[in-house]
Amino acid sequence: MVLARETPCGRGAVTFAGHARHNGDVASTTAVDAAHPQSPVRPNLTSVGTIVWLSSELMFFAALFAIYFTLRSNATELWSEQSQLLNIPFSLTITTILVLSSVTCQLGVLRAERGQVGRTGSLLQVGQWGMREWFVLTFVMGALFIAGQVFEYAELVMHEGLTLSSDPYGSIFYLATGFHGLHVTLGLFAFLLVLGRTYMTKRFTHEQATSAIVVSYYWHFVDVVWIALYLTIYIIQ
């Protein structure tokens, strides 16, 4: 509290005291800010790098689509004939498996974000599953897709005579679906790495959760690409 007498310099004394109080408040605020600095929010470099890499992969598949439509426009009769060799019901089955694997993958990511690595109940209690169980199921579904694709190739080669070098249709069919199958296989290895790290470390870390999220980005990407390939090759033909 400031006491001031009614003197010619009284008002000046009160004003000086007010400024001093204001300066003290500013100094206190500055001291608090210095004691608790706010670190800038930075994007996760791993996630950003993955998105950039997937963008380049998208351009690669876009080039394959461009080649496919170019060849198709120059050989419409060949396309109409050879597309009849495809087993649409079987391809729809393995496509459904791959699309559903994207759902199980995301359920695993949700558990990873909560820090739940393993199941908290019986194996039959699906609602209590952790990241491991959902990722293992995703791996199995992805492996079934690859096995189905290999079976389809074998049927086309041995029974229909459609090979990589038989005609332009066979070339682009095996290139487009084969490169996608290679990407799915790489995704399966990524799931194994994420699962293996959960057993090698005692504590589930933020970096491991980030790895699970990054793998899910990749898996969703290959799912979306396959949907586009399936519609283009098997449905539109």
From TrEMBL:
TM stretches of this protein: 51-70, 90-110, 131-151, 171-196, 217-236
Catalytic activity: 4 Fe(II)-[cytochrome c] + O2 + 8 H(+)(in) = 4 Fe(III)-[cytochrome c] + 2 H2O + 4 H(+)(out)
Keyword check for Translocase: yes
Source organism, top-level taxon: Bacteria
Pfam families for the chain: COX3
Class of the enzyme per the UniProt entry, highest EC level: translocase
GO CC entries: plasma membrane
InterPro entries for this protein: Cyt_c/ubiquinol_Oxase_su3, Cyt_c_oxidase-like_su3, Cyt_c_oxidase_su3-like_sf, Cyt_c_oxidase_su3_a-hlx
EC numbers: 7.1.1.9
Any single GO BP term: aerobic electron transport chain
Residue ranges annotated for the Heme-copper oxidase subunit III family profile domain, each copy included: 48-237
Compartmental location: Cell membrane
Membrane topology: Multi-pass membrane protein
Keywords: Cell membrane, Membrane, Translocase, Transmembrane, Transmembrane helix
Gene Ontology molecular function terms on file: cytochrome-c oxidase activity
Family recorded in the similarity comment: Belongs to the cytochrome c oxidase subunit 3 family.
Name recorded for this polypeptide: cytochrome-c oxidase
